[in-house]
Amino acid sequence: MAFVPHLIGRLRQQPMLELDELKRRLDAEEDLLVLDVRSAEECHGELRHVRGAVNVPLVELAELLDQLATQRNRAIAILCRTDRRSTAAHTLLREQGFAKVRAVHGGRSGWVDKGWPVGERAIAAY
Question: What is the pTM of this model?
């Protein structure tokens, strides 16, 4: 966890995906994979998840890279509760050659604050 502030600083040098842009892209039904890197328990809690999001907890992400390899050239938006874990996931995926990946600024907390719809259950990990 001590490395998280450093990762956030590095990521913020690259543009994050703003919540309004994520919502616009989802409403337009763009080909966008939404990865929710919170724990499975968090995805079923108060904040639930963005409809259609795939739950891949950050602690399991490195182990699931082979399954995600088919998505390497697809646009990917990464969410967590705020934007700390999504920042770490962004860095990991970029280092593994995922070129169109962006962490979502504000995360699930911001989504809920805006009153936007949430789903009951996230799609299980790959």
Answer: 0.81
